[in-house]
Structures are given as structure tokens and as C-alpha cells.
Amino acid sequence: AASEKKLLEVKLGELPSWILMRDFTPSGIAGAFQRGYYRYYNKYVNVKKGSIAGLSMVLAAYVFLNYCRSYKELKHERLRKYH
Amino acid sequence: MNENLFTSFITPVILGLPLVTLIVLFPSLLFPTSNRLVSNRFVTLQQWMLQLVSKQMMSIHNSKGQTWALMLMSLILFIGSTNLLGLLPHSFTPTTQLSMNLGMAIPLWAGAVITGFRNKTKASLAHFLPQGTPTPLIPMLVIIETISLFIQPMALAVRLTANITAGHLLIHLIGGATLALMSISTTTALITFTILILLTILEFAVAMIQAYVFTLLVSLYLHDNT
Questions:
Q1: pLDDT (tens digit, 9 = 90+) per residue, B12-62?
Q2: What b/e sequence results for B193-214 when a residue is b if at least 16 CB atoms lie within 10 Å of its CB, and e otherwise?
Q3: Is residue B75 within 8 Å of residue B112, measured between CB atoms?
Q4: Of the candidates B30, B40, B88, which has its C-beta nearest A63's C-beta?
Q5: For labelling, which of A49, A61, B135, B174 has a CA lying 20 to 30 Å from the CA of B119?
Q6: How many CB atoms are located within 10 Å of the residue B167 CB?
Q7: Sorted alphabetically, which PROSITE patterns does this protein's record hold (chain B) (predicted)?
Q8: Hey, is the C-beta of A66 within 8 angstroms of any chain B C-beta?
């Protein structure tokens, strides 16, 4: 069945039922964020010889998200003849 | 150009939902906690820095004032990290909003003053009259001292807002000027670019200094009142 399989092992046809199976309650979403945070933290920061990459990837993602947020105003500042 | 200049200071709202809450909460992600004796490099660095700052700042207080150590240390970490994150391209800096700085300054100042009034009433009231003033000057001086007391939270908030906002505006303006000058005269553009580099270094310093000044002044008001 498509239940309880990891995302990479789910076949394409089973994808909608897999997505509907996920836990979308508030505690489920909070759990997903917590798991994601600890996955990143334990892989890049909580290591013996952590480098600057752990912090810079977070800051780069922050810059990218802010760019997406302000794209609407920024697209008027492009060097084009017709906006 | 006028509208473009100030769009980066608009409170971010996405589909009517306050995105600004997430942006204000973001620096907390960058300060992980660890219960270990020997933690990873990131946490060790932050703990060392925090110990350095707290020793330097809390050493002047007595035991009653030192109960504020947690508050002051979180304050300087928050303002410092928010200001430094604001220097990243396209980001929104919450400390440019006067509303937020007033929300930080007024409760902290009021807490320090009210603590002083409750625990050391005579000494707190005595602050309104410096020693050795000639008798005819006393009424005017009390009025002046009261005004100077009540202006403290306003000055705290406005100082932080104005410094950070002015820095961001200057960077926007000089960056725009460099871009516009590149097609007209490359030498002038290079000079402007050098100014931009120097300004960015200044802004890094200002970001941290403003955090320090804010916290230092609150700690000073606390020292007067404990």
C-alpha cells in the first residue's frame, strides 16, 4: 500500500493518496517543521568541525525568500524600455 | 524614485497575513541552545560571546540589578542580530519601525524607573535635583530634570530607528547613484562604489553599536534605580 512509505519510494500514480495521507493537523505541521529543523541542524551545525556553510546556507535562503517576497516591487526597477 | 526609496520599509504582509511576525521571529533560529558541556563550534562561539558581553555589562550592578541580566542580554542579542540581518540584500529590518522600538524602550525604561520609585523612593526623587544648585534655580531645574527623565524612552527609541533607517536609506541612495553613474562616467562610479563599500562597513559597525548603546543605556537607567 502507499501508506507509511518515504516520499522517494512512492510511485507517481500513488502520489495523490500519499499526500492526502499526511498529517495536516497543527501538531502534525509543527512536527514536520521540527523534524526539518533538526535534520538540517544535525547535518550541518551540530557537528564536530562545523563550517561557515551551515550558517550561510540559512542566510542565503533568507535572502532568496525576501527577494521572492519583494519581487513585485523589484520588477519595476529592471532596465527595460517597456515595464 | 520617491516611492521606490521607501518601499523596503513597508511592513511585509502576504495575502493580508502578517509576514512580519515570521521575520521578527527569524533571529531566534540562529541562536540554538545546547545543554552539553562541550557543544558544537557554532554554539560554543555564541556562548563565549555572550559570556564576554554579560561580564562587561553586568559587572557594574549590585545583586538586585543583576537579576536583569537575562533581559539585557536577550535585548542586545535581539537588536544586534536584527540589525545585522537587515544588512542582507532585500531583507526587512524590524528595528526601522518606530512602533517596535517604542515597544522595547518604554517598558524597559518604565520598569527601571518604577523599580527605583518603589524600592528607593527618596533616592529616586532626589535625582530630580542635582547637588549644589543655587536655591532660586530649584523650581526650573526640577522641571528640566523631569523633562529629561521623560524624554529618555523617546530618545532610546528614536535613536535606534533613526540610525538604522538612515543607514539603509544611504545605502539605497548611493547604490542607486553608482548604478546610474556607470553609463555616464565610470571613474565617478568607481568613487561612488568605494563610498558604498565604506558605508557598508560603517553600517555593520552601527548595527552592533546601536544594540550596545540601547542596552547600555537601559542598564544605566537600571543602575540609577537599584
A1: 887 777 888 999 999 999 999 999 899 899 999 999 999 999 998 888 888
A2: beebeebbeebeebbbebbebb
A3: no
A4: B88
A5: B135
A6: 23
A7: ATPASE_A
A8: yes
> DSSP for chain B?
-HHHHHGGGSPPEETTEETHHHHHHGGGGGS----SSS--HHHHHHHHHHHHHHHHHHTTS-TTGGGGHHHHHHHHHHHHHHHHHTTSTT---GGG-HHHHHHHHHHHHHHHHHHHHHH-HHHHHHTTS-TT--GGGHHHHHHHHHHHHHHHHHHHHHHHHHHHHHHHHHHHHHHHHHHHHHTT-HHHHHHHHHHHHHHHHHHHHHHHHHHHHHHHHHHHHHHHH-
Dist CA B213 CA B205 (whole Å): 12
Closest CA to B40 of A42, A37, A47: A47
How far apart (Å, rounded) are the C-alpha atoms in residues A35 and A27? 12
Rounded Cα distance, B147 and A30, in Å: 49
Q: Which of A69-73, B126-130, B180-184 has the lowest mean pLDDT?
A: B126-130
Mutate to test the interface with B, among A70, A75, A79 (most CBs of B within 10 A): A70
- pLDDT at residue B99 greater than cutoff 60: yes
Is the CB of A54 less than 8 angstroms away from the CB of B42? Answer: yes
Kindly give the pairing relationship between strand B13-14 and strand B17-18: antiparallel
Three-state secondary-structure class, residue A63: helix
Contact A62/B85, CB-based, under 8 Å?
yes
* Average per-residue pLDDT for chain A: 85
Residue B32 burial (CB < 10 Å; 0-12/13-18/19+)?
middle
Q: Does A53 touch chain B (CB under 8 A)?
A: no
pTM (global) more than 0.90? no
